[in-house]
Amino acid sequence: MNMSLEECIKACLECMEACNGCYDACLKEEDVKMLAECIRSLRECADICAFSAKSMQSDSPYVKQICQACAEICQACGDVCKKHEHHEHCKQCAESCYKCAEVCRKMAV
Amino acid sequence: MNMSLEECIKACLECMEACNGCYDACLKEEDVKMLAECIRSLRECADICAFSAKSMQSDSPYVKQICQACAEICQACGDVCKKHEHHEHCKQCAESCYKCAEVCRKMAV
Amino acid sequence: MNMSLEECIKACLECMEACNGCYDACLKEEDVKMLAECIRSLRECADICAFSAKSMQSDSPYVKQICQACAEICQACGDVCKKHEHHEHCKQCAESCYKCAEVCRKMAV
Amino acid sequence: MNMSLEECIKACLECMEACNGCYDACLKEEDVKMLAECIRSLRECADICAFSAKSMQSDSPYVKQICQACAEICQACGDVCKKHEHHEHCKQCAESCYKCAEVCRKMAV
To answer: Which domain of life is it from (chains A, B, C, D) (predicted)?
Structure first.
């Protein structure tokens, strides 16, 4: 497995973990109503990251298409999380999302 | 494809749709804080139903194990939705969950 | 739910079923070695169709990005299946893939 | 996050990676016909491992049910891979499956 592929799988798995953890944390917050948009975004982002990791691990013929979608969703999810960065979990999750977006963009070229 | 298999796939896809719709509706309610447990349950139930459908459609060697988990999760998710049946979407979703649980239990034997 | 959304969910669920069924059938063929590329493509296509359906059912903020990826993968999977259309299941699956690709393209705009 | 949970997530993600890698490798082997059962098992095992990891990461109410299914599927998939252990990737994958089965069994209690 080449380095960039390994790096991209790693970024996707880390972003998946960050998003699922942040999803859980958001659902435990008092202001969950305010976080509805974030919760919605996190589920989708976690799931596309898992999908991307799977695709790369199994040498799917559609890695580029999936990493393209993953890059866009991670970027958008990072923006959503950033709006709620007074919650430490959202702030940290935004960083994972942006990092994953960046690596997936390269994979999608 | 035999009748019970077709029926079980149909029940899983209907429960998946009901759970995803109820998930969306819960996130749009005013009392989303009250519904956090329900939201959490619905995501998981929708996803295991999709997983079960996929497994049956592809003649997976693990249909029984997956339908067993699906039956238990649908039953539990139905109970969670039932607690919120003053929301029409939760009430209807509980019915889909219980129906799917019943059919999956038979498949798991 | 508006008509085009309902239609797109339906097309995705039908393509998911066709791909999973064709995946199973390919693995039962004698010339499975010849079908390796097809098997690989079908898994991915079935899974992105399930993902798309879920996203639309739950009013995901990322329906466009996911339907875009789904349209491209379905189109490509249709082309792969078409190469093996001497197998009736591949021929029929190609039709489901092309139909789903067409509907998802409209959703992705 | 407590130690056993972290350990179980790690085992699931490692087993997911091993299964997806072995799936890819099997589809590239000459004797892919002989490996059809293994390919079928690996897809399912990789996917339930991803599902389990997601469930634990998001503190799902259904971790036990999912880890129970995951343990059974990993155990069975390990047995399938073991039959093909003349392929190094199958041999190594069996080890990841058995390890994951063991950890998931504890989580399911």
So the answer is: Bacteria
Which alpha helices (DSSP H) does D1-109 contain, by range? 3-28, 36-57, 63-82, 88-108
Question: What's the pLDDT at D2?
Answer: 65
ipTM of this predicted structure: 0.95
Question: Contact, B106 vs B4, CB < 8 A?
Answer: yes
Burial class (CB in 10 A: 0-12, 13-18, 19+), D52: buried
Q: What is the pLDDT of residue D1?
A: 55
Q: Is A76 helix (H, G, I), strand (E, B) or coil?
A: helix
Q: Which domains does chain A have, with CATH numbers?
A: 3-108 (1.20.1270.360)
Contact check, Cβ <8 Å, B44/D55: yes
Nearest to C27 by CA among C17, C18, C12, C40: C40
D2 touches chain A (CB under 8 A): no
Residue B87 DSSP symbol:
S
A62: nearest CB among C44, C51, C65: C44
CB-nearest to A33 from B32, B40, B43 is: B32
Round the CA-based radius of gyration of chain B to a whole number and report it. Answer: 13
pLDDT of residue D24: 98
DSSP label at residue D87: S
Query: Is residue C5 over pLDDT 60?
Result: yes
Residue recorded with tokens 């994951």:
D100
CA distance B77 to B41: 6
pLDDT tens-digit readout, B27-61: 999 999 999 999 999 999 999 999 999 999 999 99
Q: Identify residue C20 by its one-letter amino acid code.
A: N
